[in-house]
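Weekly modeling sync, notes
Attendees: S.R. (lead), two postdocs, one rotation student

Agenda item 3: backlog of single-chain predictions. S.R. asked that every request posted to the team notebook include the full sequence so nobody has to chase files. The rotation student volunteered to paste the first one in as an example of the format we agreed on. Action items at the bottom.

Example entry:
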Amino acid sequence: MKISFNKYQVYIKASFLIFILLLAGVFIYFNLTRHIRSNIEFSQMVFLFLVWTCILWWTILMIFQLIFLPKGLFIDDGNRTLTLSYFFHKPLLMRATEISEYSIVYISTKSTRYKSFLMYNSNGRAYLLSEFNLEKIDPIQAFLEDNKILFVGEEKFSFVKYFMNYF
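Predicted structure, as returned to the notebook:
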C-alpha cells in the first residue's frame, strides 16, 4: 500500500518559503541600502534583528521538515517492510524486525492536532510517521500491530529535539 505526503502541509511550507525569500530580497534591496546611507536608530536595528531572527528560525524549521520527514511510505505486508521516501535523499527500507518499538505522539499546530507514530529502529534512531507529513497513518498502525512491534505508550514530542537527535 502506498501512502503519499500531506499535500496541504507541503504546499503551504513551499509557498511560505518562496514568500520569505522574496520578502528578504525586497527588504535587503530597498531597506538595507537606504539605511546604510542614512542614520538608523538602535531600537529599529534591534527590532529588525529580532523579527528576522524569528523568521529565520521558522524558515529553518520548515526546511528541516521538508528535508527530514518522510514524504511517502510504501507498506509491503508480504515482505513485512516499510519503505520511507523523502524529497531530497534516497528511500529507506525498514524491515519489521528492525523496528524495536513505537509510541504515539501528537503534533499540535494552531488549527489541528495530528496523531503520529514515533518508531525506533534497533539502533535507537527515531522516525516520525504522522498525519502532519503523510496523507494517512491508519495502515501504519495496522502494520505495527500485525507485526507485534512493542508499543510503549504516549510520548511528548518536540521538533527541535527530534531534529537535534537526527544529527
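Discussion: group reviewed the output briefly. The longest strand covers residues 99-108.
Action items: rotation student to repeat for the remaining queue; S.R. to check formatting next week.
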